[in-house]
Amino acid sequence: MKAKLNAIHDNDLEALLTKLNLLDKIKAGELKCKFTKEIITLENLHSIFPEEGTIKLVSDSPEAVKLLSEYINEKNLQ
């Protein structure tokens, strides 16, 4: 089974984050990576995904990207 991946262009990212009520929180340094707990910024944001009614963010650190990949693989197997 293949995972579905949606992408967004950098030019549209701030509009999406505004729509999700996340932009101000990111700019204020209030949100952390689901996997590494590092502060999410516009520069290090790698992924956004829903989980149990909330929105989770993932940083672009190699560790976070690896953990995201493992998480997606685990969820798709269930």
Question: What would you note in describing this structure?
Answer:
The protein is of the alpha+beta class. It has helices at 10-19, 23-27, 62-77, and strands at 45-51, 54-59. Strand 1 (45-51) and strand 2 form a beta hairpin. The protein is globular. The mean pLDDT is 90.
Please summarize what this structure is.
This protein has 78 residues and is an alpha+beta fold. It has helices at 10-19, 23-27, 62-77, and strands at residues 45-51, 54-59.
Offer a few descriptive terms.
single chain, 78 residues, alpha+beta, two-stranded antiparallel sheet, 3 helices, 2 strands, 40% helix
Q: How do the helices and strands line up, and which of them pair or pack?
A:
Elements: H1 10-19, H2 23-27, E1 45-51, E2 54-59, H3 62-77
Antiparallel strand pairs: 1-2
DSSP strand tally: 2
Topology pattern, helix = H, strand = E: HHEEH
- Low-confidence region ranges: none
Major sheet: order of its strands? 1-2
DSSP summary: helix tally:
3
Largest sheet: 2 strands, antiparallel
SS strand fraction: 15-25%
**Helix content, binned percent:** 25-40%
Mean pLDDT: 90
Global geometry: globular
From the structure provided, what is the oligomeric state, counting identical versus distinct chains? single chain
SS-based class:
alpha+beta
